[in-house]
């Protein structure tokens, strides 16, 4: 073999060794690329999960805000209704003496010459009462009813056997209720059992 051939073989062996040494580096590049590709879906899923959580939090906040606003609206509406109710109640209460004046005028006398005058009073009184009744005013029924301290104010107690003990005999001034609230209790005369009858009842109990 010639010296040149030996050198060429030696060069071929070196180039094969060099190429063989360099070859293993290729799988590392592919592995890195593969790992990078595998990480991308996981990152996207985490981002979607985070966005979903933020969306749910915003929805919860919106629901709370809507509930707060609804409660506020109801509270304001209730307060407005109560204010309007109190204003009407004050007006009705101030008009009660007008009703009393009409009642006194109508009960003052039965002069035949004042028949037309009386009819006019009755008409005005009825119109006024109808207007107040539409606003929720009602008159307390007293005469013949059992005395009730919530609705009646006793001015006088009369001993009598004609009525049950504690019954209202007559009314000095009518009482009125406005939407279930007593504006003015009725001023009444109340029946009481006669002393002799009360003593007999006490002896029977003993």
Percent strand? 15-25%
Order of helices and strands: HHHEEEEEEH
- CATH H-tier superfamily of one domain: Head domain of nucleotide exchange factor GrpE
The overall average pLDDT, rounded, is 78
DSSP summary: helix tally:
4
Summarize the structure.
The protein is an alpha+beta fold and 206 residues long. Helix content is 65%, strand content 15%.
Summarize the structure in words.
The chain is of the alpha+beta class and 206 residues long. Among the domains are: 77-135; 138-206, Head domain of nucleotide exchange factor GrpE (Nucleotide Exchange Factor Grpe, Chain A, domain 2, Roll). It is 65% helix and 15% strand. It is built from four helices and six strands; from the N terminus they run H-H-H-E-E-E-E-E-E-H. Strands 1-4-5 form a three-stranded antiparallel β-sheet. Strands 2-6-3 form a three-stranded mixed β-sheet, with no helix packed on it. Helix 2 (25-107) packs antiparallel against helix 3. The longest helix has 83 residues, at 25-107. The radius of gyration is 51 Å and the shape is elongated. The termini are far apart. The model is unreliable at 1-7, 18-25 and 29-38 (pLDDT under 50).
Task: Detail the topology: elements first, then pairings.
Blueprint: H1 3-22, H2 25-107, H3 115-134, E1 137-139, E2 152-159, E3 168-173, E4 176-178, E5 181-184, E6 186-192, H4 195-205
Parallel strand pairs: 2-6
Antiparallel strand pairs: 1-4, 3-6, 4-5
Helix pairs in contact: 2-3
């Amino acid at each position: 073999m010639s010296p040149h051939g030996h050198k060429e073989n030696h060069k071929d062996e070196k180039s094969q060794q060099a190429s063989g040494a360099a070859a293993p580096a290729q799988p590392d590049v592919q592995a890195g690329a593969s790992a990078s590709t595998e990480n991308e879906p996981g990152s996207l899923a985490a981002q979607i999960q985070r966005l979903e959580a933020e969306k749910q939090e915003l929805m919860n906040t919106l629901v709370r805000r809507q509930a707060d606003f609804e409660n506020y609206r109801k509270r304001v509406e209730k307060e407005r209704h109560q204010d309007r109710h109190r204003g009407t109640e004050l007006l009705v209460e101030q008009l009660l003496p007008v009703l009393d004046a009409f009642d006194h005028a109508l009960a003052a006398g039965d002069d035949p010459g004042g028949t037309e005058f009386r009819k006019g009073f009755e008409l005005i009184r009825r119109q006024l009462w109808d207007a107040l009744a539409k606003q929720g005013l009602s008159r307390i029924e007293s005469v013949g009813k059992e005395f009730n301290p919530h609705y009646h104010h006793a001015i006088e107690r009369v001993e009598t056997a004609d009525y049950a003990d504690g019954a209202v005999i007559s009314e000095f001034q009518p009482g009125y209720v406005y939407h279930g609230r007593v504006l003015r209790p009725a001023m009444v005369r109340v029946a009481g059992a006669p002393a002799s009858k009360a003593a007999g009842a006490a002896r029977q109990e003993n």
